[in-house]
Amino acid sequence: MDKIVGKHSEYTYQLLTRYPNPQKRIEAGFDKLIEIKRLTASKIQDILSVAPRSIGTTSPAREFEIIEIIKHYKRLIDKAETCVNDLMAEFNSVITTVTGIGNRLGAVILAEIRNIHAFDNPAQLQAFAGLDSSIYQSGQIDLAGRMIKRGSPHLRWALIQAAKACARFSPAFKAYLKTKLE
Question: Are the CB atoms for 157 and 129 separated by under 8 Å?
Answer without folding.
Answer: no
